[in-house]
Amino acid sequence: MDETLRPQQFEYIGTKQPQPGESGRNGQTLSPYLPSPELVEAVNLAIYLERPLLLKGEPGCGKTQLASAVAYELGLPSEAWYVKSTSRALDGLYSYDAVGRLRDAQLTSSRHSSDDHLQRIEDPSTYIRWGALGKAFQQTQCTVVLIDEIDKADIDFPNDLLLELDERRFRVEEIDAEIKAIVSPIVFITSNDEKDLPDAFLRRCLFHYVEFPNSTRLSEIIRSRFPRASQELIDQAISRFLELREEMRKDKGEAGKKASTSELIDWFRVLHRYPEEEALTRLDGKLPFAGILLKSWEDHIRYLRLGKGG
Amino acid sequence: MDDLPLLELFTRLRESGVPLGIKDYELALQALQAGYGFSAEATPAESRAALARLCRTLWVRSPDEQRLLDYHFEQLFNREALPEPEPKPGRRMLWGAIAFVGLMTVGTGTIWLTQHQFDPFFRPPPPIPSPQPAPALNDPLLESPTGSSGAGSPVAEPLPAPAPPNPDQPSFWPDQLPLWVVWSLSTVMVLGIGGWGVWWFVSSWLKRRSNEPDPSESNPNLASELLRDTEDEIQLAQAVRQLTPQEAHPRDRFILSADYLPVTQRQMKQSWRHLRRMVREGLPTELDVEATVRQIARDGILLEPKLVPPRVNRTELVLLIDQDGSMVPFHALSVRLAETAQRGGRLGRAGIYYFHNCPVGYLYDDPWHQQAETIPAVLTRLRRDRTVILIFSDAGAARGGLNFKRVSLTIAFLRQLKRHVRHVVWMNPMPKTRWAGTTAGEIARYVSMFEGTRQGLDQAIDVLRGRHLLTSQLVTSLPYEPAQPYEPAQPYEPSQPQGDES
Lengths: 310, 502
Hints:
Chain A is an alpha/beta fold and 310 residues long.
């Protein structure tokens, strides 16, 4: 492992939070992110050891958000690669527009084009579109790369990324060139655990299981997102939410779908729109805005009745 | 840093089947040198937790492995940490000594009291007041209590005095003691020492018990769940070790381990990976460069690019699992097989069905034989060109014996099955040597049957891919349709598998 690859060491602390309404480099709106101390340590370890950090955890516990939070705090550019079921490993590095080149060649041969068109065709590298990793490798600045939901792709997909993640280089066959990372990027990989990842791939990653936050952290998260909400409303909403979650956990076990942090935030956003008095009375009765928290008909039937009054 | 049993932890994890390499160990050292995993001003407990976190981040990639690590970490590091609460053993010794001295006092007190109380009884015989022979005679007797006590008891002191001033003293000479007093004395001593020993043992046991819950409380579900995992891998090693000599004398020995696990979960996953048949199917979306170039060469101009459908895996696996009865010892294996196949993403739209001994009439959706479906209903759902079937059953080899009815029923089912799917393969958890002469041996003539080992699984998967055809299958007189090892010609022009990457 080249020690020279990264001139400066970054350290993530997890305290620098964006102001409400602030948007990131790529134009997306940023929201505060409160990582647990363990997560912060894992991130720093991944940065130091230059290994990708694999994040697993319940859906909606903030795995994807971490990358932009780290990029924001460290002031680094970020690239995201949202994996789909049809994604191939090559997509994250580059894709080659062969059809475009063919079309250009045809146009030239039929003399419908200008000189700079001709030049364009002469240079095959103009038809390369870089993917997230491909871009990050060529940046002179350290980049935060997010590979989101890697388990959605084919099971061989992660294995095709081994060399790229391990040695941070890849070949572009079309132009017969090798791209080597100038500065090794900070890579975050998230997985929803739908498929097992191959061992060879896992071996190259650091792993962190993002735990569901406890009630104090939940209340901090809500407060950071809704600074104007009253403490009473926050406490009430969280206790109601945790009650529901505990009930779900009892029924479905650890593996079942439970209401998540992101759903809590959405739910609270709706509650917060109402005057405080009304929101509190609503919280006391039947579970308000249940559609945000309960995602199946069985859940509706079972948990809607769960009120403070029974 | 060197005194940390990190290497031991690393080795244990590796032995438990966590895929770790030397690089991982180096990473841990590197991180430790950089100051991760411990801090100077932290308490021992805190730095232990920090070290555990470091190991967790570096060496663990799933919640299961995390439990494994926590378990071994707890074992290694808490054992290290045990001597730390030093006062406990010291206090225990003190209490022991106090109790011992107390018992001694009580013992000697009893002797003394006995002496006093029963004086009248002793008075009649004392007319023989010869003190001279007494010390010589009683030395051995006296030694027994003092020798065991090791400490000078108050009784021992007056003994050597030849002329005791106390009038009661002469009556204390043991030669005046009747045998029953000596016996009762020694009984008291033995009971005292024994009682102290028992008390010491019980108290130390209680202490150990009260100490133990601490680690387990921190991870309440650790023990049970972890045991399953560790047992899996550790018992595998045991099972294999036990089985190796067994092959020499197959009938002499029983399988001793609780679980028979000749294939680990990891090996199963690796094997399932090979079960794939990439077929170009669906909407044409990928550019076929070669075909396009050829087209251009033919037409002289690009009219339209040639597209081909993307390659997708078109294998749908159905597991048929024999449940209960003679298969009970292999349930762990079948559960693992089903789990890995499911999570490996190989089952496609098909699934897992259960039966007992031999599928007759119905297949069950659940291992408890609750949800039944008729066999034809299941079979019509399968797609003939995609589905492959793996049957997991001992076929009567576990109990032995030849049951012709079962053979014919099974063969009838297999014939029915083969009309609806591409390939059928049978995995038998019993070693091959046990099939001969049993129902399994007969069934093995009609279907490719393999042992439940790694090689067996790999061979079975080869058959499912159409790579491997047993000659016995071709030779049998069954109206067996000619096998189709490979997919029939595709509707598009075949191209190089790698050439169309871009």
